[in-house]
Amino acid sequence: MDAKQAAEISSRYIRFADDEVHLRSPLYEMLARGVAADPDVMGFLLTLPSEKRQPNLLLAAMRHLFGTPPGWTTFRETILAHPDAIRSVMLTHATQTNEPARCATLLPVLATLPQPLALIEVGASAGLCLLPDLYGYDYGRTSIRPKVPAPECPVSPVP
User: pLDDT tens digits for 84-101?
Assistant: First the structure.
């Protein structure tokens, strides 16, 4: 097993548990932490291309194939018992996440356009990208505070 890649995957799953699902989905938080600490599940993930190792894709593939697991033991046993089926779904599918943090990449460009600006959103993101000026952003050296109480969107470099 490539220890460096396994550590990167583990870190990604811990970050997902801490930042994405903590206080939102206790089950997904527990499963992500379990994956991060399990060498056998890590070995399975290492058989996938790096862009297919993300937590929400694994969780979605498992739920698609086997329903919602009752806990970590069943989740782990299912992965180890059916790696080919899970791998097949993960390799042929992708996830679409809709979150205000994606506006962090749009805001600097939108700010350079002639104002006022009207946005039209096409897609199923519930209008989350229609109000980029209402969210708070942390670009590292520069932060923009939200105009109203709204989610903070930390921006991190793409790996």
Answer: 999 999 999 987 665 666
Q: Which residues contact 73 (CB under 8 A, 6 or more apart)?
A: none
Q: What is the pLDDT of residue 10?
A: 96
Residue with the larger pLDDT of the pair 33 and 149: 33
Share above pLDDT 90 across residues of the chain, in percent, rounded to a whole number: 53
Give CA–CA dist 66/70, Å, rounded. 11
Domain boundaries, the chain: 3-92, 100-154
| Long-range contacts formed by 38-46: CB under 8 A, 24+ apart | 38/76, 39/1, 39/6, 40/76, 40/80, 41/76, 41/79, 41/80, 42/1, 42/6, 42/9, 42/10, 43/1, 44/79, 44/80, 44/83, 44/86, 44/87, 45/9, 46/1, 46/2, 46/5, 46/6, 46/9
118 by Cβ neighbours in 10 Å (0-12 / 13-18 / 19+) ranks as: exposed
Burial of 132: CB neighbours in 10 Å, binned 0-12, 13-18, 19+: buried
Number of helical (H) and strand (E) elements in the chain, helices listed first: 7, 3
